[in-house]
Amino acid sequence: MLWPTGRQAPRSSSARAVGSVVDVRLYIEATITLLVIMDPPGTVPVFLGLVGRKSRDARKRAARQGVLVSFLVITLFAVAGNSILAYMHIGIPALQGAGGLLLLLIALDLLTGKGATNHPEVEDVNIALVPLGTPLLAGPGAIAATIVFVRQAGGDWASYLALAAAIVTVHLVLLATLRSAGLLIKVFKESGILLMAKIAGLLLAAIAVQLVASSVQGFITNGV
Q1: Rounded distance, CA 69 to CA 127, Å?
Q2: 53: closest CA among 220, 150, 181?
Q3: DSSP per-residue codes, the chain
Q4: pLDDT tens digit at each of 224 positions of the chain
Q5: How far is C-alpha 224 from the geometric centre of its chain's CA atoms?
Q6: Per-domain residue ranges for the chain?
Q7: Rounded to an integer, what distance in angstroms lies between the CA atom of residue 112 and that of residue 114?
Q8: Which of 55, 160, 169, 170 has the fewest Cβ atoms within 10 angstroms?
């Protein structure tokens, strides 16, 4: 906005305060990027394929634990991702390949009918850890994007706070999405959930193949 003198009107003190504490542009960019990569709506069929035939409490527990695992993994790589990868001499293509192979094993379980059966409580925890928490939610793409944003921050605390806020926002959206997945169970019933498990297995297999292909392409591009 321009004043009559032609000078730009100063921002309000509250706007300056927010801008000085948090990098709003980076917050918006990181939030949108992570939402697109982690794809909350797209995880619902896989989530139901894994725990759709369990009790309501078990589904809520799996959603909460899976999102918590994802949050911890993403936070770990945001804080020390560059150091971890450098110390272990691991590149993003290696993460993609490992994540793809792991997802392929889970996909085969779903396609053969082993992924949506009733398991003990310890198995519920395992499902929340793998594949839900990682590599489905906190997968190679989300990890790589987080590391890129950390590098982009360049030591600026306002940027670090923006990235932290974006990570929290995305995981709150994930939690809300997975906890509302129970509404679909009332619509599709038992047979629908079984069919959804097969579709989820097929989707996971496709994601796994794409991750492995991206891994191979990355190795070729990097000349490894």
Answers
A1: 11
A2: 181
A3: -B-TTSPBPPPPHHHHHHHHHS-HHHHHHHHHHHHHHH-HHHHHHHHHHHHTTS-HHHHHHHHHHHHHHHHHHHHHHHHHHHHHHHHHT--HHHHHHHHHHHHHHHHHHHHTT-SSS---HHHHHHHIIIIIIIIIIS-HHHHHHHHHHHHHHTT-HHHHHHHHHHHHHHHHHHHHHHHTTHHHHHHHHHHHHHHHHHHHHHHHHHHHHHHHHHHHHHHHHHT-
A4: 444 444 544 545 444 445 567 789 999 999 999 998 898 888 888 888 888 778 888 889 999 999 999 999 999 999 999 899 889 988 888 888 888 888 888 788 778 866 544 445 545 567 778 888 988 899 888 998 999 899 888 888 999 999 999 999 999 999 999 998 878 777 777 677 777 778 877 887 888 888 889 889 988 887 66
A5: 27
A6: 24-218
A7: 6
A8: 55
- Answer whether 43's CB lies under 8 Å from 178's CB: yes
What tokens were used for 79?
A: 């804080």
136 is written with which tokens?
Answer: 């489905």
Bond into 41 cis (ω within 30) = no
